[in-house]
Amino acid sequence: MQLFTIxxxxxxxxxxxxxxxxxxxxxxxxxxxxxxxxxQRDVPLNIWGWADPGEVVTVSWAxxxxxxxxxxxxxxxxxxxxxxxxxxxxxxxxxRNTLKLNDLLVGDVWLxxxxxxMELPMNRVVDLYAELMATANYPHIRLFNVPTRYSxxxxxxxxxxxxWEAVTPKTIGAFTAVGFFFAKxxxxxxxxxxxxxxxxxxxxxxxxxxxxxxxxxFPTHMAVAQKMADSxxxxxxxxADDARSRTWYTQIWQTDKGRHGAxxxxxxxxxxxxxxxxxxxxxxxxxxxxALKNLNGVVWFRKEFDVPASLxxxxxxxxxxxxxxxxxxxxNGSFVGTIGYxxxxxxxxxxxxxxxxxxxxLVVRVINNIxxxxxxxxxxxxxEVGGQVIDLKxxxxxxxxxxxxxxxxxxxxxxxxxxxxxxxxxxxxxxxFKGVIWYQGESNVSRAGEYRDLFSAVINDxxxxxxxxxxxxxxxxxxxQLANYLPVQNDPVDSEWAQxxxxxxxxxxxxxxxxxxxxxxxxxxxIHPLNKADVGKRLALxxxxxxxxxxxxxxxxxxxxxxxxxxxxxVLRFRETGSGxxxxxxxxxxxxxxxxxxxxxxxxxxxxxxxxxxxxxxxVWHDAVRRPVAVRYAWADNPEGANLYNRxxxxxxxxxxxxxxxx
Length: 663
Hints:
It is a single chain. This protein has 663 residues and is α+β, with helices and mostly antiparallel strands. Among the domains are: 255-404, Jelly Rolls, CATH 2.60.120.260; 559-658, no CATH class. The strands form eight sheets. Strands 1, 3, 4, 6, 7, 8, 9, 10, 24, 25 and 26 form an eleven-stranded mixed β-sheet that branches. A six-stranded antiparallel β-sheet has the order 11-23-13-19-16-17. Strands 18-14-21-22 form a four-stranded antiparallel β-sheet, with no helix packed on it. A hairpin with a 2-residue loop joins strand 32 (610-614) and strand 33. It is globular. The protein starts with a helix and ends in a 5-residue tail after the last strand. 41% of the residues are buried. Mean pLDDT is 95; it is low at 1-23.
C-alpha cells in the first residue's frame, strides 16, 4: 500500500510539472539533413535545426565537436569547417536527444530547378536509355527530390519528408534526366561525389521562383502575389474552379452517347460500320467534317487489326504517341489504360491473353477540354508483340460522343508569383552547394519581352540569399537555352520562342553564368524532347568553365560577339569558336537573315541571306540589300537547318543584332 501511494504521488507530481511547465522538445533536423546526404566540399558547412530555447546542441563530425545554443526562435546553427571530398562519414547531433546520420558524402552539390524539362524523370526517356538504366550503379551520385509546395505568406522553414537516393537500376527512373546526365559527366571527369537537389515544377514561370524582395521590381507580379496572400481570395478561386470543372465533366459523362447507349462503344461487338473515317495521327479540327470543327468534348476512335495466331495471347506493349487532352483505351472490350493530360507518351502494357488470333478491336475515347484535340503527328502508333510490330497508323473510324463548351483552365496556384520560392527554395537555406542548373522558360514564352529581366532577377535574388554559403561568389548559375519546337516556318518571321532565347543569351552578361544551347536537340511536336543526355553533357561542359576552372577547353558553341559593315556585307565575330567555325551537314550556312533600314527610319522585312565562314567570322549578305543593318540567326520557333557549329560539335546560339544608328 505504501509503494502504491508513492507511485500515485509521483504520477501526481509528474502531472503538475507537465501542466505548469512547457513540454521539452527533441532536437529536430531539416528533412534535407538526413542519412545519405551529400555535403558541399571546400566551403564551411551549415548544420541547423530546432530545439527548445537555451538548449545546447552538439554536432560531432570527423572526431571534432561543435556546439550551439538554441535561440529564442527555437533555431540553432553550427558551422563546420570546410571539408575535402570523400566519405562515407557519420555525424552525431546531440541535445536532449541524440540523432546519428550515416553514409554521408562530401563532394559537389547542385540545385536543379526550373520547369518540366528539368523535372522530367528518366522513366520518361527510357526508350533512349533503357540499357544504361538497367545497369546503372552510381553510389556516389545522389538525389534529394523536393516535392511541389507553395506558400503565399511566410516562407516555409522546411520541405516535406524525403530522402537522398543513390543511382541504382531501381531508383534511376525517378531521377531528373537532365540532372542525372549532368552529374554523370562531372562525376566521371572529376571523381567526386555529386549531390542533386531537385526543386523544379512543371509549367512554372520564372516569377514563381522570386522572393518578395525581388518581386518588388515587378509591380504587376507583386500585385498578384499580394492577392494570393489573402486566403479567402484563394479559397474563392479554388471553389469556382472546382465547380466549373465538376460541372463540365458531369455534363460530358451524362451526355456521352458512347457510354450510355444500349451498348457501349468500346464493346468489340458494337456495330460501328456507319462511323466515318479519318487518318491518324492528326487533329480532328483539320478534318473536313463540319461536326469536328472547333469541337470540345468526347470523340471515340476505333480500329480493327489482325494478329497472327503465333502472336496471340502474348503480352504486348501498345504505343499511342501523345493524345490531346486525355484518353481511355480499350482492347477487345477490356480497359488497357488512361492518362489524364496531353504530354506523357502513351505506353500501355497488354497482359498475356489480351490479344486474340485474327481480328482485334482497339477503341480510344479522347476527351478534349480546349483547343485542338487528337493524336500528335510524328509519334509512334503501334503494337509491339513477340519482337514484331503492328502499325496502327492510317484509317480509323470515329464518332462524336459528346460536345461541350471549352473548359477554361484551372488556376495553378503553384504558378503564382513568389509561391515556389517560399515553398521550395527558402526552406533549403542555408544548405551549401556548388551552383544551380536551370531549365525553364517555356511558360514565359508568351511574355518573352520581360524574360531577361525576370530571369536575371531570379539569379541575383538566389545569389543574394545564399551569400557566403557556396565556394564561389557569385555561385555558378548554368541554364539551358530553349530547344527548337513547333512546326517549321519557311520564311523569316517574328518568334516569341526566339525572343525568349535571346533573353537567355543576353543573361550571359551576368558573372559566373553558362548556357547550354539546345537548338538542335528539340522535337517539333513535343515540348519535352527525349534527348536529355546531350543537354546534361552540355551543362556539364559549361560547369567545367564556370565552376571548375577549365579556361582552355572548349565548353560552348559559338556565341555572337560583335559585327561591322564592310562593303555591303555584315561581318560577324564570335567567341567560343574552339578550333574553328564549321557548317554542319551542308556546305552552305543556313538560317541567316538580314534587314535594311527603310526610308521611314523603320527596320524593313528580314530576308534569307547568304552566309559563309571566313576564319572566325561569318560574312552575311543579300544581293538586294545594299546596306544591311540587322541580322538574325536561327530566329524561329524551330529553325530547321541551323548549322553553324564549332569543330568540337557544339552549336552556335541563336541571336539577333543591329548596327547602331548612324550619326
